Amino acid sequence: MDMPSPDQTVLAKKAHIVARLRAVLPLDAVIEDEIETRAYECDALTAYRCPPLAAVLPSSTAEVAAVLKICHEENVPVVPRGAGTSLAGGALPTADSVILGVARMNDVLETDYENRLVRVQTGRTNLSVSGAVEENDFFYAPDPSSQLACAIAGNIAMNSGGAHCLKYGVTTNNLLGVTMVMMDGEIVEIGGGHLDAGGLDLLGVICGSEGQLGVVTEATLRILRKPEGARPVLIGFDDNQVAGTCVSDIIKAGILPVAIEFMDRPCIRATEAFAGAGYPDCEALLIIEVEGSEQEIEVQLDRIVAIARRHNPVEIRESGSAEESAKIWLGRKSAFGAMGQINDYMCLDGTIPVSQLPYVLRRISEMSKEYGLDVGNVFHAGDGNMHPLILFDANKPGDLELCEDFGADILRLCVEVGGCLTGEHGVGIEKRDLMLDQYAPEDLEIQMAVKDVFDPKWLLNPAKVFPLAASHARRSVSH
Amino acid sequence: MLKPENEAALAEMIATGTGPLRIVGGGTRDIGALVQGDVLSMAEVSGITLYEPGALTLVARAGTPVADIEAALASEGQRLAFEPMDHRGLLGTQGTPTIGGIVAANVSGPRRIQVGACRDSLLGVRFVDGIGRVLKNGGRVMKNVTGYDLVKLMAGSWGTLGVLSEVSLKVQAMPETEATLVCEGKTEQDGVAALCAALGTPFDVAGAAHLDAAATGGMSRTQVRLEGLEASVAYRMDRLRQGLLAGFDVVQGAQSALLWDEVRNVTPFADQTGAVWRISSKPTDGPLITAALKASGLAHRAIYDWGGGLVWVLVTQDDTAGAAPIRQQVAKFGGHATLVRASQVQRAQLDVFQKEPTPIAAITTSLRAQFDSHGRLNPGLMGE
Ligand SMILES: Cc1cc2nc3c(=O)[nH]c(=O)nc-3n(C[C@H](O)[C@H](O)[C@H](O)COP(=O)(O)OP(=O)(O)OC[C@H]3O[C@@H](n4cnc5c(N)ncnc54)[C@H](O)[C@@H]3O)c2cc1C
Ligand SMILES: Cc1cc2nc3c(=O)[nH]c(=O)nc-3n(C[C@H](O)[C@H](O)[C@H](O)COP(=O)(O)OP(=O)(O)OC[C@H]3O[C@@H](n4cnc5c(N)ncnc54)[C@H](O)[C@@H]3O)c2cc1C
Q1: Which SS3 state, helix, strand or coil, does residue A452 take?
Q2: Domain FAD-binding PCMH-type: where (chain A) (predicted)?
Q3: Which of A288, A444, B25, B117 could form a Cys-Cys staple with B98, CB 3.0–4.6 A?
Q4: Host domain of residue B305
């Protein structure tokens, strides 16, 4: 994966830039030491690393504005950073960039149960937003598996999803407003406690813009009352296609589970060896969770089980207690960890129309043989968001490149069947060069034209999302 | 009048033409500043191109009548989750509402409070920009973060950024049953407080509205809707009536549906003369804004939907449609107001959409320039 070569003028005036940043921030909020900046050299896509010129850790919107104003004047690229859990290289710096981390901004600013919203600083972690309203039995719905670590800042930038988004939607459906600092230091308020945009829906564009339009410092989020209860059922099949049909039949029957998770045999075996959840050794396994009161849960599960029985499952495991529920989820929750035990892995996240599931799974297993790399599939089946995990050996020369090629082929397949490159992780640098497989040049042109409006100098996270060749002209305008 | 038959013809007409265009789907949502320009009708760019009930997705060309879409969905026991209103009664317009018009105006009904707006159901768009380029964004799958989300931007852009040629939507299964809990005689404050309380329960409220006495022409009415499996709705209704909504009566089936048609289509204001505003605010601010209007001497009637977060205000006797006090109060509380129905004179003289703060207005203007550099698409409709 190429990154643009650093701007020598910027490198040459590092001392000057650092001095200006120090003038507007507390002493410990500017990190420029070559060893200490290493802490910011990568996100969760660890194959790519580069320490930034400097990292800053502002504590307020005003400080963020001061930093951006300086970087704007000095023409220094800025890479916003939340918790650095991006799997797409979204927070990867370049040597001439300043990392702007919002981790110190993690206050809850307002809690309003009547209007069902909270306003937080965006450095706050996803889970601790729910934590802040838990005592009143409320929660913030989008729940990425990284929720213990990842920040609302990154969630907004990536429009992150979670296991329960089949019912509750992803970040964009739960975001009411933001305070954002533009690259030139101007502070804007978009949205708020009301539900709809007054003019153009700018909030909709900012969510998912991967830190390229502005630095989001505060967010108003929708909170919901917790359901009375939840319970999963586990269903095993000896055929992927049948499992896929079962999912579609459940959806057609008008039942809306909060989650429908799917694991295939390689993944089941790996997690069994790792976690010992007692899963059946079968071709495909579904974990379906429903919510409500005891009685409502019974009614929904009865219907789901009745539909599943029509497809000759090899196993149906209903849960009779909280322990049994936890056991059903155990394997799924440890799936990534289990695969990581075996090998290094790369996690993809293309989305496909649910109807294409059997075909895509078959093609992936064929390609796996061609490439000689194993793949496990674990994903959100209700919405077609796949997570193929390709296993490789980082110490073996050439294996990473082979794995990336295989990954690219899988993503092209997703697009070919009517899906997309990424369902929740974002483009970052990882899928940047595949964008032309999904979009025509003019489709990317209009997206880049949107960036022109928010960040005319292309200083905010400039080397991401768009193929470098496509964004080259815009990035290389001398300022 | 321009009447392209398909997307390619549409692109050609825009690329080769000059001068402003007034984009019309079905011509039923005559909202916004008056637009001068050649009429561009999308009525012929019509037809459902893909419908997969098992994946809850439907793709249709922009000129497809909403009625056709609703019929296709109903045949599979499905529907549009966001329950778009039919503006014809309120605006006294005729014609056939199209799905493109719904999306362009981000029209969403009472269920918005539970499942989100039209923009939240919109998965992808194809459109033609102001210089005739055919563009696409999003797709037909439920989860998609590939590049910027221009899908949301196009929803509610009122045809000012591009002419939609095709839209993909996430649809919803029709519930087994619905029921509404109704109570008469509450004040606006008490009514909205009850709605907010109900929305704060785990019972998945699918509609929460209050109509003031002037709107119903009798007693005020507070109503809360539940939808889902029979057993579920019965259970939730009991729990609410034993607790927060004690004293509410139960209305079921078709009668319940009628109550919500009335709110969705703002029927009580349809045959009343006067200007109609649509105010979007924080739910608890809804009744505070109307109380302030009353205190300022502006006579009006109000219907509160979305738990109080959407207030339809009918202003009867004022030449300027009550614009000054309404703008003033909305500015004070936060949110925005749109003049949905007004006389030609009022529409020509007043801002229909809320004026935006300077930095936001600047972004909006620059975005328009990127999508429509010659200012040809519904120029001036949203202001500026
Ligand atoms: C084990 C694991 C499991 C995961 N599971 C999921 C999952 O289930 N669902 C899912 O969607 N994702 C998942 N992810 C991906 C990742 O956690 C999400 O993308 C998350 O939202 C990133 O948040 P972050 O705070 O770590 O952001 P970072 O990694 O710091 O940054 C991500 C992007 O946001 C931008 N950004 C950061 N802060 C700001 C700001 N203040 N203003 C503007 N832009 C900003 C950055 O520039 C970058 O482009 C997972 C990751 C891991 C490692
Ligand atoms: C005989 C007659 C005469 C009229 N004379 C006038 C007049 O002089 N001045 C006037 O302002 N109005 C006039 N109207 C009303 C005019 O039709 C509407 O004001 C306006 O064109 C919006 O149409 P319509 O599409 O609301 O309906 P909808 O289809 O409901 O559209 C709603 C909004 O979405 C936009 N839109 C619709 N389809 C698309 C699409 N595919 N892509 C992008 N945007 C779309 C529309 O421009 C409109 O802003 C007249 C109507 C009739 C029937």
Answers
A1: helix
A2: 48-226
A3: B25
A4: 267-349
Residue A343: per-residue pLDDT: 81
What pLDDT was estimated at residue B347? 87
User: What's the confidence (pLDDT) of residue A254?
Assistant: 86
Q: In this structure, are strands B78-79 and B134-138 parallel, antiparallel, or unpaired?
A: unpaired
| Chain A residues inside the 8 Å CB shell of B139 | 418-420, 438
Distance CA A129, CA B381 (A): 40
Cβ A201–B147 below 8 Å, yes or no?
no
Predicted complex: ipTM over 0.85: yes
Residues paired with B38 in a beta bridge? B21
Say if residues B106 and B160 touch (Cβ distance below 8 Å). no
- Residue B103 — φ and ψ, nearest 5°? -70, -45
Report residue A231 as tokens. Answer: 């319970």
Q: What is the pLDDT of residues B314-323, one digit of tens each?
A: 998 888 999 9
pLDDT of residue A169 exceeding 80: yes
- Say if B375 falls within a structural domain: no
User: With an 8 Å Cβ cutoff, is B168 touching chain A?
Assistant: no
Q: How many residues does chain A have?
A: 479
The reply to whether B165 touches chain A by the CB within 8 Å rule is no
| pLDDT one-digit tens code per residue, A56-92 | 999 999 999 999 999 999 999 999 999 999 999 999 9
How many domains does the structure of chain B reveal?
Answer: 3
How many CB atoms are located within 10 Å of the residue B373 CB? Answer: 12
**Apex CA A328: angle with CA A327 and CA A332, to 5°?**
105
Write the pLDDT tens digit of every residue in A231-270: 999 999 999 889 989 998 998 888 889 999 999 998 999 8
Q: Say how many Å lie between the CA of residue B27 and the centre of ligand 1.
A: 43
Residues B196 and B327 in one domain: no
Interfacial B residues in 80-119 facing A (CB < 8 Å):
106, 108, 112-113, 116-117, 119
The ligand placed nearest to the CA atom of residue A143 is 1
Q: Is residue A129 within 8 Å of A147, Cβ to Cβ? A: no
| Domain end call among B173, B206, B240 | B173
Q: Which pLDDT does position B29 carry in this prediction? A: 67
Q: Are residues B64 and B81 in the same domain?
A: yes
Instruction: List, as ranges, residues 194-223 from B with C-beta within 8 Å of A.
Output: 196-197, 199-202
- CATH number (3.40.30.10, 3.30.43.10, 3.40.640.10, 2.30.110.20) of A6-101 reads 3.30.43.10
Q: Does B284 map to a domain?
A: yes
Torsion of CA A152, A156, A162, A164, to 10 degrees: 90
Per-residue pLDDT of A192-201, as tens digits, reads: 999 998 999 9
Rounded Cα distance, A241 and B334, in Å:
51
Contacts of B134 in chain A (CB under 8 A): 442
Closest of B316, B230, B3, B176 to residue A253, by C-alpha: B176
Sequence spans of domains, chain A:
6-101, 108-225, 230-416, 432-478
Query: Which CATH number applies to A108-225: 3.90.180.10, 3.30.450.40, 3.90.10.10, 3.30.465.10?
Result: 3.30.465.10
Mean pLDDT for A198-219 is 97
Average pLDDT of the residues of chain B: 95
pTM recorded for the entire structure: 0.95
For position B122, which CATH number holds? 3.30.465.10
Percent of chain A with pLDDT over 90: 85
Measure the CA angle with vertex B243, ends B238 and B248; round to 5°.
Answer: 65
Residue B4 above 70 pLDDT? yes
A182, A383, A427 ranked by CB distance to B143: nearest = A383
Strands A30-31 and B21-24: unpaired
**Cα–Cα distance for residue pair A19/B155, rounded to 1 Å:** 45
Pocket test for ligand 1, best of A160, A173, A451 (most atoms within 8 A of CB): A160
Mean pLDDT of B92-101: 90
| Separation in Å, CA of B138 to nearest CA in chain A | 8
